[in-house]
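Holo prediction. Input below; ligand is iron/sulfur cluster.
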Amino acid sequence: MRELVTELRAWLAWAQESGLQNLAMDPRPSPSPNPPEPTKVSPRKLPLLQSVIDELGDCTRCKLHRTRTNIVFGVGNPEARLMFVGEGPGEDEDLQGLPFVGKAGQLLTKMIEAMGLRREDVYICNTVKCRPPNNRNPEPDELNACEPFLKGQLGAVKPEVIVTLGKFAAQSLLRDSTPITRLRGQWREYEGIPVMATFHPAYLLRSPGEKGKVWEDLKQVMKKLGLQPAKGGAS
Ligand code: SF4
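Structure of the complex:
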């Protein structure tokens, strides 16, 4: 119980610092026609994620709300040791309200399984929760508006490692415009959490010859987390 109270206090401090001022004050859900929910229930961490969902509500904090079908909050284990952060929802994700469910998502699932994990063992989300029109890059004002919710997810899940997928997620999370070809494979930090940047699975679908580099990046992550690869490793 004491551990939970300590964790809750730390997370609330983090959330308030991130601009989520109302979390401690008003736990009532905001009206939302499509509130996506994490897939796995944890009695300890889910209330924290639910608070972020409640704060998000039917968000209109940036212009991306005008063209979205669904808010794509994130899915996975609320107690995941590993969190994947992509750029933003695509068409399939926008329609289903879930991250990484298209072809790139299927490849991400294979990458996770090659690491000896199941998709439901990790937590998956994006830097922005609404689809940018025509899959354009999110703009700085949109990233700034949505970042408190990513911080809220990180504060709730408290992953041991973050893997960013693709140039944009790495550059926006790390606030570093270094090309992804040089960012990838290097340990960095976000809010004190080790970050490994690697290529986006959509890029791997176009350039399968780059899969080996991603596997090298994921092997570093596995080493940090003490994971053993699945039999056969990456394919
Ligand atoms: S992208 Fe984020 S801040 Fe913008 S409307 Fe969607 S949920 Fe709100």
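The pocket of iron/sulfur cluster is lined by residues 56, 59-62, 64-65, 71, 128-130, 142, 145-146 (CB under 6 Å). That is the main takeaway for now.
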